[in-house]
Amino acid sequence: MKRSLFYVLAGLLLVISGAYAQETVKLQDKYTAHNKGKYFVSWGGNRETFTNSDIHFTGENYDFTVHAAAAHDKPKGWHIDYLNPSRITIPQTNFKMGYFFSDHYCVTIGVDHMKYVMTQEQTALVSGTINLPAGEQGAIHNGLYDNTPVDFSDGTFLKFEHTDGLNYLNTEVSRFADLSDWLGITNTDKIQVNFTEGLGAGILYPKTNTTLLGKARHDDFHVSGYGISAKAGLNVTFFKHFYVQGEFKYGYINMNDIRTTQSAADKASQHFNFFERIVAVGGIFKI
Fold it and tell me: I need a surface site. Which of 35, 84, 231, 260 has the fewest CB within 10 A?
């Protein structure tokens, strides 16, 4: 009797351990169970908000600062240009590619193609001096400015924007945490929900469109400064390889070498904070 009971218990133990082992194998076999070694790439769009900033302009015969200048982005909305290679720089876009060096951490490189437009319909305080030669178009603004209110509406004093664009070339280190179990999702190979957060830094490579005191604009790409940023968002992956990701990104931009006109002596500088809202689609895979 005792020997029979022993055989029954031993058999039950083998069945239970076998079932547990099978379940463990199933979990390990899921493509989404581990991220280490995977690559990913994404493309999307954004909206931005910028803090007011002091913009300092220097050059031959002028040196002045526009205080607390307001600015906004230049959204395209839902448009085919996001997918049109010949017009892909017209909307505000985000490109990113990355690699998971562990199951929860990845490194990325990317471009946040933002657009910054100094609000034209505004009156701001200006400090400094303008003393252009008589006969130049901008000479009508000659004078000493001491926190003097200036109406920029007619555009003869200044038009200032980074619209092709405010290009933030950055690298990020991000963490991913799988929320699927907490949300009651059992088959993550069909759908998986991740929380992501990260830190980034990079350079600003804008093409600045500036009409300054009637001078001819520079209108070319130029490394103008640096940026740092932090982000958080949600990643929803479908059928192992395709995902939609939404992010909030907050950062600081410092540009101390902005080209404004065709003269190398003419420059501007500014620094401000930005808040970016991003929606992107992408793919994740192993090579």
Answer: 84
Q: Has residue 102 got a pLDDT over 50?
A: yes
Which pLDDT value is given to residue 24?
Answer: 40
Question: What is the rounded (10 degree) CA torsion for 12, 18, 21, 27?
Answer: -100
Q: Cα separation of 140 and 137, whole Å?
A: 7
| Residue 42 and residue 51 in contact, taking contact as beta carbons nearer than 8 Å | no
**Higher pLDDT among residues 12 and 79, named by residue:** 79
Name the H helices within 35-129.
none
Which tokens hold the place of 245? Answer: 């990701």
Element (H, E) at 233: strand 225-238
Give dist(CA 258, CA 235) in Å, integer: 36
Per the CB < 8 A criterion, the answer to whether 217 and 236 are in contact is no
Which residues have a Cβ under 8 Å from the Cβ of 190 and sit 6 or more positions away?
Answer: 238, 239
Q: Is the pLDDT of residue 14 over 60?
A: no
Residue 196: name the closest of 251, 247, 242 by CA: 247
